[in-house]
Amino acid sequence: MANLESGKQGIWATLRRPSVKYSMLGLLVVGFFSGIIFWGGFNTGMEATNKMDFCIGCHEMRDNVYEEYKYTIHYSNRTGVRAVCSDCHVPKDWTHKMIRKVKASYEVWGKLTGKIDTKEKFEANRMAMAEREWARMKATNSIECRNCHDFDAMSPELQKKTPYKKHMEAKAAGQTCIECHQGIAHRLPKGFKKPGTEEEEE
Amino acid sequence: MKHLTLAAAVAAISLTGFTAPALALDVEAAKGLAEQNNCMQCHGLRKDKDGPSFMKTAEKLKGKAGAVDEIVKHITSGKKVKLADGTEENHKIAKTMPPNDAAQLKNLAEYVLSIQPK
Description:
The complex is a heterodimer of chains A (202) and B (118).
Chain A: H1 2-16, H2 24-48, H3 52-55, H4 59-69, H5 85-89, H6 94-103, H7 105-113, H8 119-139, H9 161-172
Chain B: H1 2-15, H2 27-36, H3 39-42, H4 54-61, H5 67-76, E1 80-82, E2 88-90, H6 102-114
Antiparallel strand pairs in B: 1-2
Helix pairs in contact in B: 2-6, 5-6
């Protein structure tokens, strides 16, 4: 125990002791380039987890939500602009991206414990997962949607009358994209009713 | 002889009035497709919104041959429709997963036709 303590003190003392062997310039240059390599590597790794191939690397995503997304306008459209998973589910700015990535570690736990490893389990959890994601998007004022979509950029001449009217109403009411546009890239959970379209008594 | 047996079998089936059974209406699937396509933003079940209620459409097409096909065509062709305020615009094209799934579209059409007054 005493040895361990003295060992810890030894390392700490070594770290705190001014270098007698290396010049200040040498340390600064090595530190500078090490920083670049570390930071570049960290961000490259982080970006790699934003690629669609990474997201569909597990069968839970590939066999369920990815299959559905392939039939939507965000995957294939007239102009060839594609929004991949991270475009809608990961904020672009660094701070929010880091927070999202840390929270995503819970999803890794879900993967490890097999929470949604069958179609049946996925469907059983779809409503909870969707509602959690919609709540997150609402809280951020649909930050990912607004990387590309903006109320002010909607043209009354080019957009159909009904959606334009609804968009302007939503803007005036301070609503955000996800409050109406749930399930645009994936199937809606069974039994979900969009707000304002509650079923009349049958 | 074989041909005669086959002909007799076909005749027997025809005489008994055998027809392929129509697939039963899947209400939950139809409601899901309607939600997915935002149908209920403009149509109520029994309440007119920007578009007519499903009930009104069902009444209009009641007993009409080809009613299902007519609705399917209506929701997949993007034809011009008149809104409640008198203006016109192209009807939204209903999308299915996988695309253009006739069974899902027919099921939705049958659901529309099934809406009766309370």
